[in-house]
Design goal:
Blueprint: H1 3-37, E1 52-53, E2 57-60, H2 64-67, E3 75-78, E4 86-87, E5 93-95, H3 98-112, E6 118-123, H4 128-138, E7 140-148, E8 165-172, E9 185-187, H5 204-214, E10 221-223, H6 230-237, E11 242-245, H7 249-259, H8 264-270
Parallel strand pairs: 2-11, 3-6, 3-10, 7-9, 10-11
Antiparallel strand pairs: 1-2, 4-5, 6-8, 7-8
The protein binds S-adenosylmethionine.
Length: 272
């Protein structure tokens, strides 16, 4: 590269880094303000009143960074947000930048998980380097499960390979044993756009299989980023107890609608 072009190139990189840094600083400042307003609760703090409760399931319309401090799950099965900034009524950022939030959430998840329990976290290859490093700061990484979606999302006019899989971290504190043998590639159709109630809704059959092989009948399952309640529905199909935590009341209501459907098995059988 010629001198001038090289300078221009370096300037552009510096500019990009500066704006990233400015965003990052702003974000940390917001997080700190939020933390000051709402200091971490001690463990075993009482969480808010359930938003919904039945024989198998409980939903809290809460920030999971608070609620998880009071829970003792055997299994954490969750699909965290991939970096979207959520704001509360006062326009305060509650959660967002994945680098920051996941780091803090994982520590709390680690402290809450039972010693013989397991944690499953959906992820994408775009986040892999950042999340894996954070995950391994706390958990033993037992495996990286591949969810093969059986159909890809499309061919992108030749500009990319069709996306046909997602990844799931399977971790533990070192003391988890699977209840039945299973492979680390799980095939399952994704939920079609027509049937989806949440943009990143996960298929019941996949979640059900993960619960079946990982969680004893009396083990508590918690989904701290519940969305439309897929983990809770899958657990209920197996007669297991599950707790979901979700910031957005709209998704809590969708989860309740699914959990109170007359025949839960219809949704499982109609998926795809
Ligand atoms: C990727 S979605 C989960 C979708 C879910 N797998 C399903 O099948 O519907 C993540 C969810 O986490 C929620 N969320 C984000 N930050 C949260 C927090 N701090 N506490 C609880 N829920 C949160 C979002 O509102 C979103 O619905």
């Amino acid at each position: 590269m010629e001198g001038n072009l090289l300078n221009q190139h370096i300037k552009e990189i510096i500019k990009e880094q500066e704006s990233d840094q400015a965003y990052y600083d702003w974000y940390c400042e917001q997080q700190e303000k939020y933390e000051e307003d709402k200091p971490p609760q001690p463990f075993d703090a009482v969480v808010s009143q359930p938003y919904y409760e039945d024989e198998y399931t409980t939903i809290y319309n809460e920030d999971c960074l608070t609620a998880m401090r009071a829970l003792r799950p055997h299994t954490i099965l969750t699909d965290p947000p991939y970096g979207i900034a959520y704001k509360d009524k006062n326009e305060k950022v509650m959660i967002g930048d994945y680098a920051n939030v996941l780091g803090r959430a994982l520590k709390i998840f680690y402290e809450s998980l039972s010693d013989d329990g397991s944690i499953f976290i959906f992820t994408s290859f775009k986040l892999l380097s950042d999340w894996l490093y954070r995950f391994e700061m706390y958990f033993k990484m037992n495996n990286l499960i591949i969810w093969e979606k059986e159909r890809s999302t499309g061919l992108y006019g030749g500009s990319n390979f069709g996306y046909s899989y997602e990844m799931i971290f399977y971790g533990s504190k070192g003391g988890h044993k699977l209840l039945e043998p299973e492979d680390d590639v799980l095939g399952c159709r994704r939920v079609s756009a027509r049937k989806r109630e949440h943009p990143t809704q996960k298929p019941l059959a996949l979640l059900r299989r993960i619960i079946e092989v990982s969680t004893p009948q009396n083990g508590l399952i918690v989904d701290p980023f519940m969305g439309s309640g897929s983990t809770l529905v899958a657990a209920k199909l197996l007669g297991r107890k599950a707790i979901g935590i979700e910031l957005n009341p709209k998704y809590c209501d969708i989860a309740i609608k699914r959990l109170t459907s007359n025949n839960l098995f219809d949704e499982l059988n109609e998926a795809g």
